[in-house]
Amino acid sequence: MSSYRLPKGGLVDRKAPLSFTFDGRPLQGFAGDTLASALLANGQMLVGRSFKYHRPRGILTSGAAEPNALVTIGRGGRTEPNTRATVQELYEGLAAQSQNRWPSLDFDIGALNGLLSPFLGAGFYYKTFMWPAPLWEKFYEPFIRKAAGLGKASYDPDPDSYEKSWAHCDLLVIGAGPTGLAAALTAGRAGARVLIVDEGSLPGGSLLSDSATIDGKPAADFARDTSAELQSMPNVRVMMRTTAFGWYDGNVFGAVERVQKHVRDPARHLPVERLWRIVARHALLATGAEERPLIFGGNDRPGVMMASAMRTYLNRYAVAPGQATAIFTTDDSGYALARDLEAARVDVVAIIDSRPSAGVDYRGKARLIREAVVCRTKGRKAISAIEVHRGGRAETIAIDALAMAGGFSPIIHLACHRGGKPTWSAEKVAFLAPSGLKDLDLAGAAAATTDLAACLAEGAAQAKAIVEEFGWSCPPIVLPKVEGTEGTHASKPLWSIPGVKGKAFVDFQNDVHLKDIGLAVREGYSHVELAKRYTTNGMATDQGKLSNVNAIGLIAKARGVSPAEVGTTTFRPFYTPVSFGALTGPHHGHQFQPVRKSPLHDWAKKHGAVFVETGLWYRSSWFPRNGERSWRESVDREVVNVRQNAGLCDVSMLGKIEISGSDAAEFLNRVYCNAFLKLPVGKARYGLMLREDGMIYDDGTTSRLEENRFFMTTTTAYAAGVMNHLEFCAQALWPELNVRLASSTDQWAQMAIAGPKARAILQKIVDEDISDAAFPFLAAKEVALFGGTLHGCLFRISFSGELAYELAVPAGYGESVADALMEAGKDHGIMPYGVEALSVLRIEKGHVTHNEINGTVVPADLGFGKMVSGTKPDFIGKAMLQREGLAAPDRAQLVGVVPLDPKQSFRSGSHILAKGAAAALENDEGYVTSSAYSPHVGSTIGLALVKRGPSRHGEEVVVWNGLHGESTPARLCNPVFLDPQNERLHV
Amino acid sequence: MASLVPCPHCGQRPKEEFTIKGAALTRPAAGADASDWFDYVYLRDNPRGAYEEYWHHTSGCRRWIVLTRDTVTHEVAASRDAADRPRSEART
Ligand SMILES: [Zn+2]
Q1: pLDDT band with cut points at 50, 70 and 90 for residue A489
Q2: What is the pLDDT of residues B2-60, one digit of tens each?
Q3: Which of A581, A591, A671, A973 is deepest in the core (most CB within 10 A)?
Q4: Which CATH code is given to the segment(s) A1-158?
């Protein structure tokens, strides 16, 4: 026989039937069901196949610890594998699929793995690595991958949205069971800001499964009324479907709220999950306790269930486990289950109690077998009988459901997340939270208090103490009257059961059984951390919630020591698996990182720009025109046009920093390696910024606009880094300097106007005289535009080597100024050019960028040796730049390189070999840092860092690229390919 | 997952708003020995326990601060603006 729904009772809404499917079979449940309770109500006891041996598995628990009942739910991008059926709320149309079976759940070929079990035992992975390596790829790995497995993730994008949020409270209560509710109520009534979270859909925890009465009403009603009072308090927030998964420093807790995981069609205006970081002045763990399985042969057969889970299915969901039930218990909780089963007219055939006497006086109809154990189960895909051993005699009893009650382990995970080790209590027979915790307490079953009345009292008392410590006065606590609970003799742990036959599972999810633990101890892996890895016990997605304490007990027994001596493995977040979606939050797709668009973005778009992502920026790469068949054609045209006429390039993304204050010049003098103190007002200067180790950090131009006001530009990539660095220098190194820094990158639209006709074009919109005499090379000043209607900053600087200017105007005017310049330049042949052309122009001129400033070069390596001030008493990098090695004669230094045959090419990253030298590391002379096709030279050209490069101009070398199999005869040359006398600059 | 960092100007703020530079060492004087510079640029202690570090409130007030942080527990014992030299140093 199998499980079924009782005609009455439970907290399910029988007026709200829900249709769902399991492996395509249409089934019915009720609102208030979990997928697990609905499956059991339909008699579906077989729900999955085990990880390694593909054994038939059923539903073991009714909560978060479930190791067996993992299913895949949802479709397409909403597919969610490894969903625990025991926590998934049922909704109309839910479609669940079983996992790890082929071709079907009922008939699974993989079950043959059971025959291979001698090879799949403890240390299997370790030993496999010792086998002949060539067989790994062909045999072991495909076999392991195929055989062992969980559900499959979807490749479709997740259509749902996720959020992240912060919350703050005086008292965070984790767990809305009896202890947590009593605590929240006490603190809430006192006026503290209380946040109470619980992973379930309804407040109440174990109250929802308990047949006791509180103040004369059913426990579930007490839970409902208490939470209603909590919800009515403005200072209390009740967050259901919220799992606190980690405890972090600063008393911050991580939690995930499943906002819409219980509906088929999530509302688009809400996230499906919300990741919370909760900052709590104090926290109370009222997380309850986990019941331990008992380890006997076939304890994994469908129909075997935790006793507390069976009680939950019976009382909360009105689901009977079978027609003929047996209970195997080591404590008194088994008797409460027996009483409830019998009250629901479910036959209890036998109670097998490992103890000589119980703490309760059982008067039901079941046969009571004391000092006895179940040593194995029988059946195929569901349990049909148990073999009971008592005093050396074996007896087989036919049943269709078995509950096991192996004692309770307090759920202390969060209390251990910050490094504290649990302590073993011989008195409570349990691992308790580490002692001396700060800002966190435990109460109720999480602190090994088992009696319901005691839990209510403890929750209230702890909350009172906490809020009074914070200065609130607490109204007197009135404890409710609890009736109808059983005695609570502590369990006598039964780590190993004599006479066990067959596979007795310790870790159900990873298929670790009793013999594996024994083997690990025998083979020398008895340390708890080693045993875990050797057997994989506790390493599955359930993180050993059911298995860890049993494994410790078994190891302790095998070693003849107390569990205290074995200790636990390390508890780490997350308590239960957290979806990647929740952790990612809104940061995916286009929201993965911010998008920075230049004020001239739309202008560039208008001109057909092809954009490239550089960091957060979208920069215009080139501007294709009709008839151009490749990007090279466009870039060549842009380059040639700049050299012959004029071009306009968006350089707004360069970092821009305004530096002011009476010590601004002194400050710049210390952050640049070259001199800035005497830079005249109205002048720009190229500056090199070093790191403290002497290497070049960044370069750019800085202009003195007023005596105590400077305008600095940085490279695009290092804009933020330079700003941070300057702030460090100003605040931490030289706070005595009067200097102010302001990033103004986003305030300005900046454009380069370059080419022989640049002046003629620019003069049409600039009011001031910008002739060479009035505004010579490196002039910089604020200018009026369009007859004084607009003001901007004009700099006569050139990256291209042509007559060139950079004009900065307020960002909002960028597009109209660019339009005006295009109009003004129409007759002069002006064209927009992008960063590709910019790059070709600067390589032709031998200008460096971060391709060359790559963290390994000092100024002299790039030909800037003479720029470094010898007279300044101090600047960043000065001391370390003196190091002998940085002046060594064989340093790699900047040089140009061209192919001997103009038809041949080479690419950046290729290495330089002396002519005739073999391609070997010891013959490496350097490498190409930048390369491009130069219309001016008529071939590929490159910049390279080559040993003794400056003294080797004219030497024939080979440019070698092993990755692409290229070898190009080339000649080293002056890195300035165009106008070495700078005649074009000074026209 | 989470850490709160006390900024002397902004109060407790999430660590994502900050950038960490590393040990809060004092920069040697301009003419200091090469060995002092080597220590400053390259050598770092790696203590278990209290450690003084430069943190930058990058996404906040943009001040550099000196945190005294426990490298084991991440507990912050003190935080001050980097421009406020410790009293011992100010006296010299
Ligand atoms: Zn701040």
Answers
A1: low
A2: 589 999 999 999 999 999 999 999 999 999 999 999 999 999 999 999 999 999 999 99
A3: A671
A4: 3.10.20.440
Q: Which two tokens stand for residue A163?
A: 């959020």
CB-based contact B19 A692, cutoff 8 Å: no
CA-based nearest distance B2→chain A, Å? 6
Helix (H) or strand (E) holding A819: helix A814-824
The answer to whether residues A826 and A858 touch, using CB atoms and an 8 Å cutoff, is no
A735 → chain B, closest CA residue? B83
CA distance A879 to chain B (A): 7
Give the per-residue pLDDT at B90. Answer: 46
* Residue pair A88/A29 in contact by the 8 Å Cβ criterion: no
Give the pLDDT of residue A626: 96
| Residue in B closest to A280 by C-alpha | B4
> How high is the ipTM of this complex?
0.96
CB A327 within 8 A of CB A405: yes
> Which DSSP string corresponds to A133-191?
TTHIIIIIHHHHHHHS------SSPP-S-EEEEEEEEEEEEE--SHHHHHHHHHHHHHT
Q: Please report the number of interchain residue pairs, chain A to chain B, with beta-carbon separation below 8 angstroms.
A: 77
Between B2, B30, B81, which is nearest A873 by CB? B30
Q: Which chain B residues touch A575 with a CB distance below 8 Å? A: none
pLDDT of A315 higher than 60: yes
CATH architecture of A595-888: 2-Layer Sandwich (3.30)
Q: Which of A248, A254, A727 is opposite residue B62, by nearest beta carbon?
A: A727
pLDDT-derived band at A773 (thresholds 50, 70, 90) equals: very high
**From the list B21, B34, B75, which residue is nearest A249 (CB)?**
B75
Q: Choose the closest CB to B4 out of A279, A731, A880.
A: A279
| Residue keyed to tokens 């911010």 | A594
Q: Which pLDDT does position B83 carry in this prediction? A: 96
Q: Give the domain A890-987 fold.
A: Elongation Factor Tu (Ef-tu); domain 3 (2.40.30)
A732 DSSP 8-state letter: I
Residue-wise pLDDT for A253-283, tens only, equals: 999 999 999 999 999 999 999 999 999 999 9
CA of B70 to the centre of ligand 1 (A): 20
Question: What mean pLDDT, rounded, does chain A reach?
Answer: 95
The helix/strand/coil state of A529 is: helix
Give me the CATH code for the A504-566 domain, please.
1.10.10
Q: Where are the alpha helices (DSSP H) in A696-813?
A: 719-728, 758-763
Domain A162-289+411-472 grouped into CATH 3.75.10.10: no
| Alpha carbon of A179: minimum distance to chain B alpha carbons (Å) | 27
- Looking at the DSSP assignment, which residues form a beta bridge with residue A685? A702
Q: Is the pLDDT of residue A107 over 70?
A: yes
> What separation in angstroms does the CA of A964 have from each of A329, A691, A943?
71, 35, 19
Instruction: Read off the pLDDT of each residue in A410-429 and give the average, rounded to a whole number.
Output: 94
Distance from CA of B20 to the nearest CA of A (A): 11
Q: Which two tokens stand for residue A678?
A: 């005497």
Which residue in A164, A172, A245, A249 has the most chain B C-beta atoms within 10 A of its own C-beta, making it the best mutation to test that interface?
A: A249
Residue percentage of chain A with pLDDT more than 70:
98
Whether omega before A103 lies within 30 degrees of 0, making that bond cis, reads: yes
Indicate the DSSP class of residue A657. E
Closest to A80 (Cα-Cα) out of A581, A443, A591: A581
Residues in CB range of A782: below 8 A, 6 or more apart: A705, A791, A792, A793, A794
CB neighbour list of residue A808: distance below 8 Å, 6 or more residues apart: A656, A748, A749, A750, A792, A793, A794, A795
How far apart, in whole angstroms, are the C-alpha atoms of residue A401 and residue A318? Answer: 16
- Asked if residues A473 and A489 have their Cβ atoms less than 8 Å apart, the reply is no
What CATH code is assigned to B1-23+46-86? 3.30.2270.10
Length of chain B: 92
Superfamily of domain A293-406: FAD/NAD(P)-binding domain (3.50.50.60)
